[in-house]
Write a structure and sequence with these properties.
The protein is about 10% helix and about 50% strand. It is mostly beta strands. Among the domains are: about 120 residues, Immunoglobulin-like; about 70 residues, RNA polymerase II/Efflux pump adaptor protein, barrel-sandwich hybrid domain (OB fold (Dihydrolipoamide Acetyltransferase, E2P)), CATH 2.40.50.
Amino acid sequence: MTMRRFVAGARRLAALALVLLPLAGCDDTSSPGPKGAAEKASKGAAEEYERGPHRGRLLRSRDFSVEVTIFEEGADPEFHVYPYLKGQPLNPRDVELTMQLTRLGNKIDTFKFAPKEDYLRGDGIVREPHSFDVTVTARYGGQQHTWRYESYEGRTTIAAEAAEVGGVKTEPAGAASIDETFSVAGRITLPPRGRAEVRARYVGRVLTLTKAVGQQVKQGEVLATVEASDSLKTYQITAPIAGVIVEENVNVGDVTGTQPIYVITDASRLQATFFAFPRDAEQLRTGQSVEFRDLTGRRISSRIATLLPSADAGTQTVTAIANVSNEDGSWRPGMAVEGTVTVASSPVPLAVRTRALQRFRDFTVVYAKVGDTYEVRMLKLGRRTPEWTEVLGGLDPGEVYVSEGAFLIRADIEKSGASHDH
């Protein structure tokens, strides 16, 4: 990251800090609604809920209680619920229990429970993130008991204005093309037809010169007149190409010899000459797309026009040439460039911007957005390029995610003390 980008990010983060309304992590209180979570996060630490013998959340209703845990040691996460009467373990076969998880965006997961050993086991995997509004319904001894609480992690709320100030941008996840690429180094060069040496047809004395170094010339424009030594006849010398005078090697009165009078270059059409090592050269083909950039980061796209048939004897590199349109004159012969050659492209049904990826706990994530709320999405990833990363699971097609400024969302969630506690 350049210093300029670092400073810009720091400024956006400072602006966000003034207006963010962070929500709590997985260990928040049982107070209903987002207001309670935001207040808890603003205190800097979660208020501890009552825990049972298995360190789970203990829910009481007079003498009857249940302890909710998520078991995830060496297995996919699943709910284990332990029932109690007056603090003593109950036979799980005497209890009927269901649980409903309402996720961000009003997506609902429903679990039914069956007795196993001394607990009730949920009938499905608890998908990440473990962030939801929970409703637990239990029936014991002819009576029904219902509890509701929040259990959030990796979630925060940011007002739209604050997100805009912070440079946060979003887009829906969808299909993309994953490109297989490799990098090559090279330089900007003049094509053979982009350079012309202007010489006298016959040996003679130079009578006039019409141009100087740095001046533009048109094709066919008169550049000099020469008096031939053998016939004493005067003849004109014209420009064979349009371009700029880069060399002037004679003066008026000189006798023409082996040196050219002028050298003209046409930099409106240049070449990018790249040098590929053998392991990469085998993948090169004419017509392949190549994007290259100079030392300032300026970029341009082209295609490989020529592959030279021989390798360099010293480096064993193969030369690939791409044409460069340079009508504005911003590219100059001799510039060092780095190119990225695309050797294959595969469409994938679901991908996200690679720059959107962040770390959360042991996961690679993006941040989904619903309204003004942002929440982690743990991803299963496939192929990755500098632009796109294939998503194999953890995000739905069309789901809106943070494509730019994701590190600011991450910083705010970490500031709020999001955790993974149940």
